[in-house]
Structure formats: C-alpha cells, structure tokens
Amino acid sequence: MAQAVDISNGMILRLENELYEVVEFLHVKPGKGNPYVYTRLKNVVTGRVFERNFPSSTRIEPVRVERRPCQYLYSDGSQYYFMEEETFEQFGASAEQVRGVEFLTENQRCEALWDADTETLLFVELPQFVVLEIVEAEMAVKGDSVTNIMKNAVLSSGARIKVPLFVEVGDKVKVDTRKKEYIERVKA
Fold it and tell me: Which domain covers residue 101, as residue numbers?
C-alpha cells in the first residue's frame, strides 16, 4: 500500500511499476500555489535520469531494500559474479547492474542492493573511492606544467581516466567511482 513518505537521496521508489533511485530532491514552497517536491530520479534498470515534481501530499510507494556486503569474484564476459560475505552465496550481475564496473578489480569489496520483497538484485555499488595503480600513461611534455593540464592514463582495472602530468606509471591513485575521475596520488 502506498503511503506518504519523506523523500531522501538514495531512496528507491516504485512508480508505475518501475523502480527509481532518488538522485536529488528539494522541497519547494512557492509564493503562490501549493508546495511540491522536486526530484531527479534514476531508473534502476535502464539508468535513465529525469526530473519529476510531486505535490507534497502525494503518496509514494517506497521499496524496502537490503544492502548486503559482497566481494567480486570474476567475469565471464557478459556477467560479473559476486559472493555475499555473510552467506557465501554467489550471484551474477550484468555490466549495467554494476555501478562503476570499469573500476572493478578481483576480490573488490562492494555492496549489493536487493529488493527485500522480491529478492531481486537491483544493483551492485563499488565504494565511492578506490585506490588503483597506473599501468599506462602518456609522457609529460616539459613546459606544460604552467597550467593544470591533464593527461590520459590507464588503471590496473583497465579504466581510462585523466590524471595530472606528475602522475607516472606505477603510481597509485585514488579515484572517485561515481564521478569517474582522479582525486589524488596515494603514497605507497
């Protein structure tokens, strides 16, 4: 049964028989008219993001989700296999269900979100920050250091990102898996 709920970031909602994650929300009280809740929603299956306003009196059906720690095991090309850390059960996920899949490395600890009512996997989420090694990087050109110029690099996971000129092959870097960008060089 649908009920009035407070919307918050990361909450999973069921609208028109589809699941959406709240990416952003804002309670709006205009000078004229009724208050409403502005939201940016992301479809859990397709990843499509859109904006939607709800009158403040709208009843929304929240989805009960369970977060379960898991560990990445291997990939067979089309599926990524994980093991739940508490039960040791294994499950597969498509590339679309793994958020930050390009930063996934063997034995990586992640978190799986499951629909508690249907026991359906919604998605697997990597930690927001991971430390990976640079395995390939463009050469820095002398004189380019005057401004904040970035160069292309390949991480040990195979992902390609932009890094500052001073970063070299063999360096470990901290990467934001959600924004898919370099944060800082990490001392080994």
Answer: 65-125
pLDDT of 103-126, one tens digit each?
A: 999 999 999 999 888 898 999 999
- CA dist 108 and 112 (Å) reads 12
Find the farthest-apart pair of alpha carbons in the chain and give their distance in angstroms, rounded.
65
Name 150's Cβ contacts closer than 8 Å, sequence gap at least 6: 162, 163, 164, 165, 182
What residues form DSSP beta bridges with 10? Answer: none
- Long-range interactions of 17-24: CB distance < 8 A, separation 24+: 18/43, 18/44, 18/45, 19/43, 19/44, 19/45, 19/63, 19/115, 19/122, 20/44, 23/49
Strands 120-125 and 98-99, sheet pairing: parallel
Q: Is 143 helix (H, G, I), strand (E, B) or coil?
A: coil
CA–CA dist 185, 167 (Å, integer): 7
d(CA 45, CA 96) in angstroms, rounded, equals 8
Domain limit, last residue, from 125, 150, 168: 125
Q: Answer yes or no: do 144 and 116 share one domain.
A: no
State the 10-residue block means of pLDDT for the chain, 188 residues long: 58 86 89 89 87 84 88 93 95 92 94 90 93 90 67 94 92 94 89
Residues written for the chain: 188
